[in-house]
Specification:
Layout (H helix, E strand, L loop, with lengths): L5 H16 L2 H22 L4 H31 L5
């Protein structure tokens, strides 16, 4: 059995780290779904406030999406432009 080199260990740890970074997408998806559901519920209760509710929901969804995008960028960096190797 061949011993594991330092570079192979860094690449393996980077692949595991990229997988863990993609877990951030789960939180963003759950948060956006919850916000959209609550916004639809709010519009159903107060149709006259639809513009304000929609604007607030879209701003919140944009902020929640940045978490998923940051996780994706970290995963891509670890997989394809690994600064540790």
């Amino acid at each position: 059995m061949e011993p594991i080199t330092g570079e192979a260990l860094v690449l393996a740890a980077s692949a595991i780290g990229a997988g863990l970074a993609m877990i951030a997408g789960i939180g963003a998806g759950i948060g956006q779904g919850y916000a959209a559901g609550k916004a639809a519920e709010s519009v159903g209760r107060q149709p006259e406030a639809q513009g304000d509710i929609t604007r607030t929901m879209l701003l919140g969804a944009a902020v929640a999406e940045t978490t998923g995008i940051y996780g994706l960028i970290i995963a891509l960096l670890l997989l394809f432009a690994n600064p540790l190797v």
